[in-house]
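Re: weekly structure request thread

Next one in the queue (94 aa):
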Amino acid sequence: MPSACGLACEICILREKGLCPADGCVAGTDPRAPEKLERLKAATGHLCLILECAIKSNIDYCSRPDKFPCDIHYQQQIFSRKILDMVKGILGKE
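Done, posted below.
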């Protein structure tokens, strides 16, 4: 199941390293999203900026908006800068 960032939790390096909840993440519009965000902060001391933004923006997955990729994607470092730059080029956002 994809998380707010659009990645499948089963293949996410952050989850593998124990930086996300063992039961994975959720979409930003999921009713459990605020609870997941707080549990993540309590467990790791860090907020997931992508999930936080998805909740505030009331969107399910961050890869859908016209703003993808945005500064938060570069800050969160879930995707490499090279991948984000490539997506921007493909979408004509350079």
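The chain has a mean pLDDT of 85. The helical segments are 13-16, 33-44, 49-57, 71-76, 81-90.
Next request, please.
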